[in-house]
Amino acid sequence: MFQPPRCPNHRCPRHLDPTPRFFVRRGSYRALCRAHPIPRFKCKTCGRGFSRQTFRADYRDHRPSLNVKLLELLASGVGLRQSSRMLGLSRHCTELKARKIARHLRRLNLNLRGPLPQGAVLQLDELETYEGRRNTRPLSVPVLIEAKSRFMIWAESAPIRPRGRMTAARERAIAADEARYGRRRDLSRRSVERTLRRGAELAEGLRTVTLSTDEKSTYPKVARKVFGRARLCHERTNSRLPRETWNPLFPINHTEAMARDLMGRLRRDSWLVSKKRRYLDLGLALWMAWRNLVRRRFNTDEESPAELLGFVPRRLTEWELLSWRQDWGRRSVHPLARRGESVERWSRAVA
Ligand SMILES: [Zn+2]
After folding, report:
1. Which of 35, 50, 255, 323 has the fewest CB atoms within 10 Å, i.e. the most exposed one?
2. C-alpha span between 263 and 132 (Å, rounded)
3. Which one, of 83, 48, 117, 58, lies nearest residue 323 by Cα?
């Protein structure tokens, strides 16, 4: 039977320090969208009433039954407008749902990771896309993966300066953009460093950190800064080599190609555009969680990337991905928990 993991009132002492019997059961209620009654509880310390639903990721959602379908569509390269048509939702409602799901999956993906096993290989690359307008607002997206399992550790977007072939029309467009938004900054280095730090969080136990990248001149310095000179083994490959399977950077190139195919907004020559880069970041969070936890590593595999690294015991379903709220860090309920055990407790029990 479901045990509430904590009092949801964050001003209550039982929120951070729940005692085994901090609550009393208070019957149940029936919801139109659920087949079974939902148990209600009351905190003995602060008196706040809550239910099992308070701990679900679809807490307070309208049409919660469409969440899984929407996640599947968004992880299959379908855009927001087309998803809204297919689900019979308004565009605005679809956007809000997608953002809530993405923020939830961002937390889930961070909560369910642990230290990398010895022998892990990190690969970093940057892909280019844009926000709003292709010829004036380019973005760089550093992507960091563990190469053997294809686990996506991090990806985020950063503005870069427009470059490449300039025509008179393009220069006019850039000038108009600068008059409106100010000079476009180049934040790609900062973003590469932040991405590598996400890897460093998982690589603390590794004796040597193997990082492979292309020959971009700024990488060695940032990598040494993040991982320390002593532990780092930095392999660099010329990015002009053909992108075949024998190319040492094939795993990261392949991951990027997959993301471009299955995230509509990264596709080239598409009508789907990220208007603001923060929405691209949410899209990346959604896709990363799906790639790491749901999708098999290769089509011939049974295991997901997260499973291969030992972060979860099996592949998760989309429904499990969207099960329990994840906004209490490792104290959130584990998506595979049966009785409301936290990620921390559940992972320890399995190990
Ligand atoms: Zn309480």
Report:
1. 35
2. 16
3. 58
Q: What is the DSSP letter of 116?
A: P
Per-residue pLDDT tens digits for 15-65: 999 998 999 999 999 988 888 999 999 999 999 999 999 999 999 999 999
pLDDT, tens digit, 9 for 90 and up, residues 200-211: 999 999 999 999
- Looking at residue 114, what is its pLDDT? 94
Nearest to 283, CA basis, from 309, 84, 275: 275
- Inter-residue contact 135 to 162 (CB < 8 Å): yes
H helix intervals, 203-335? 219-227, 250-262, 277-293, 305-308, 318-321
3-state DSSP: the chain helix, strand, coil percent, rounded to 5?
A: 40, 15, 45
Q: Using the mean position of ligand 1's atoms as its centre, give its distance from the Cα of residue 42 in Å.
A: 8
Protein residues within 5 Å, CB atom, of ion ligand 1? 7, 9, 12, 14, 43, 45-46
How far is the C-alpha of 109 from the C-alpha of 125, rounded, in Å?
Answer: 20
The answer, yes or no, to whether residue 192 has pLDDT greater than 90, is yes
Block residue for tokens 């294809």: 150
Q: What burial class does residue 199 get, using C-beta atoms within 10 Å of its C-beta: 0-12 exposed, 13-18 middle, 19+ buried?
A: buried
**Is the pTM higher than 0.85?**
yes
One-letter amino acid at 36 equals: H
The Cβ-side half-sphere exposure at 148, using a 13 Å CA radius, reads 11
Task: Extract the tokens encoding 228.
Answer: 């320390």
Looking at residue 350, what is its pLDDT?
79
SS3 266: helix
Q: From ligand 1's centre to the CA of 45, what distance in Å?
A: 5
Cα 9 to middle of ligand 1, angstroms: 6
| Torsion (CA) 105, 107, 110, 111 in degrees, nearest 10 | -110
Q: How many residues does the chain have?
A: 351
Q: How far, in Å, from the CA of 16 to the mean position of ligand 1?
A: 10
